[in-house]
Amino acid sequence: MFIVDKALQRREAENRPIRVGMVGAGFMARGIALQMQRYVPGMELVAISNRHVEHALQAFLSAGQENVAEATSVAALQDLIASGRCAVTADPMHICEAEGIDVIVEATGAIEFAAHVAMRAIRNGKHVVLMNAELDGTIGPILKVYADRAGVIITNVEGDQPGVIMNLYRWVKGLGIRPVLCGNIKGLHDPYRNPTTQEAFAKRWGMKPPMVTSFADGSKISFENAIVANATGMRVAKRGMYGPTVETGTPIQGAVEWFPLEDVMNGPGIVDYVVGAMPNPGIFVLGTTEDAAERHYLELYKLGKGPLYCFYWPYHLCHFEVPNTVARAVLFKDAAIAPLGAPTVDVVATAKTQLKSGEVIDGIGHYMTYGLAENTETARRERLLPLGLAEGCRLTRDVAKDAVLTYDDVEFQPGRLCDQLRAEQDIHFFGSSIAETARVERVMT
Questions:
Q1: Backbone angles phi, psi at 8, to 5 degrees
Q2: Are strands 103-106 and 68-70 parallel, antiparallel or unpaired?
Q3: Which end of the chain is more exposed for a tag (fewer CB within 10 A), N or C?
Q4: What are phi and psi of 84, to 5 degrees?
């Protein structure tokens, strides 16, 4: 961790900064721009793409960068970078294809759009840093396959909980202690929240109501923990995870007693979360060891008698930490967090309200669905619909409130890259595509 700052200082002294292009200019992207432009030596944000190009320009201006111009072609963007100016563009593919950019930060939260961005960046030999848990939790494993083939790094970020959890997981593992639960600390969980209920909070912080809703309704925590599971080989102990709620302010160290010991100790470990504990919004890892000497020392150091020991980090600082991830990817070819191989946990679409045949499903954090984490093995066996693919699908029958949707409940939009990549992911790791099987069965019936 702490070698990154010195490595960036060397790049600054050598006048060889890491050159970053960013796609997205929303709430988190603006924070990333501010951090990179003002506080990170050896790194330059040289281009931002956003469909409303004026928002990209404002992200630069808010960070104090005024030497900015719009580029309407790859060549024009390259010329601006070569001349020492920053560029904004409405076309993200310009950034993905341009020379003079080392790494792409994808910060939109979209899935179909971001899939195109990630694939184009990979094919042009650029590292990809995802501030996009939804994309990673849906097709991250197959994107990692493509990145490996191209010799580039794809990674989710420190700052968001998955990257911070993974840092702590690696640290605990390095102590010789076996991590058995990776956890997230939440202040609220209500699957029936929607953009209307979250509008006031979103307005206060300058965020979009669907984004805030995805935090509250459990979709975001499901994606984040799926990412951690896929990076560690862990599972969920039950659909939706346990998510125990404790009295507000309860110290997280009590988590050693909040989960069934057999679920934690047996198998590859689990991902889960806690509501109400402190420090919020921190993260934690429960670990164990069979070494009697180590248990003696851990008790001496006030971590308890075991068999579980709680390690935690008191916060995650979102955009503040993203430059560390960028530097690790470019300078050390080290992903903060990326899939190990085949996915182990998926996020499945669940009806937030009674859904009617013929309706078109709205987006994550909207009114119709919320996400639940489920083991991939179960999701495949029961043909459960990934939440990341649900938006835009048309329902072929009614679905009861709180029922999990299946591939048999929907018709997909034609021609989407995210569906194609998900099918490739299924075939690559499991030998068959559930979506294709469902389509053939519908045709035959």
A1: -70, -40
A2: unpaired
A3: C
A4: 90, 10
HSE, CB side, 13 Å, CA atoms: give it for residue 142. Answer: 19
The dihedral sign for the CA sequence 427, 344, 340, 147: positive
pLDDT digits (tens, 9 = 90+) for 113-132: 999 999 999 999 999 999 99
Residues pairing with 54 in the sheet: none
- How deeply is 437 buried, as exposed, middle or buried, from its count of CB atoms within 10 A (0-12, 13-18, 19+)? middle
CATH architecture of 345-444: Alpha-Beta Complex (3.90)
- What's the CATH code, domain 3-159+319-332? 3.40.50.720
With b meaning 16 or more CB within 10 Å and e meaning fewer, what string describes 259-271? Answer: beeebbbeeebbb
346: left (phi over 0), alpha (psi -120 to 50) or beta: beta
Q: Report in angstroms the alpha-carbon separations of 21 from 81, 113, 302.
A: 11, 16, 45
DSSP 320: G
Quote the pTM value: 0.95
Please tell me the distance from the alpha carbon of residue 439 to that of residue 393, in angstroms, as a whole number.
13
